[in-house]
Amino acid sequence: RDYKVTGVQTCALPISGLVAIGAMAVSAQAGIVNVAFGTKAYTSAPLYGNAPISKLTDGDRAGVFHGNTAIPAGFSYWIDLEKDYSPDRIVIYPRQDGCCPDRFSNVRVSMLSDDGAGNPGTENWTADLFTDGSNPGSGAGVKVQVTSGMGAGTFKGRFVKIQALADPVPDYALQVTELEVRSEEHTSELQSPCNL
Question: Is the distance from CB of 161 to CB of 112 less than 8 angstroms?
């Protein structure tokens, strides 16, 4: 029979009279996951319609948002992963309904270190995208997959930033629906000796 005693599982072993208490087997698994989901997001200027910047990492690829009008130079979004990652890739989802694809063009994607006070610090890696005025489109399923080789520096950091490079910044710039950071994560699984 199995017993539960103050949160520690005990069980009878095949040898009469012996009981195993609290021993666990641990197995680790690794997989590529979106470590940006639900993380804190920030914007350097108010969004159109006062949309919340939390939409950047809420998992809803249909929830479009963008800057307003008269946007200040250097307009950007960034997220805090709360620790350093060396990701497999960064994935940006532009608008998905076919409208206004030019609103995501001439952008910089960067990874930054912590400045020592929990704020974005030094740029470790940067990639400038669509600087020729092109854009990725805005149809269903469109995504921009950003990898280490597309930029310069060390593809590692606590913060991921998307910045409009144009000056002046066009109205309604940085039109996106979601930012993902795909990185390898390890998960642990605990197993009771009673099930071994």
Answer: yes
Residue 20's CB is within 10 A of a number of other CB atoms, namely 14
Residue 133 has pLDDT above 50, yes or no: yes
Q: How confident is the model at residue 186 (pLDDT cuts 50, 70, 90)?
A: low
Long-range contacts of residues 118-123, Cβ cutoff 8 Å, at least 24 apart: 118/80, 120/78, 120/159, 120/161, 123/153
Q: Which of 67, 69, 89, 72 is nearest to 166 (CA)?
A: 72
Q: Which helix (H) or strand (E) holds 35?
A: none
Rounded to whole angstroms, the Cα distance separating 81 from 74 reads 21
- Distance in angstroms (rounded) separating the CA atoms of residues 152 and 146: 12
pTM for this model (two decimals): 0.81
Report the alpha-carbon distance of residue 158 to residue 82 in Å, rounded: 6
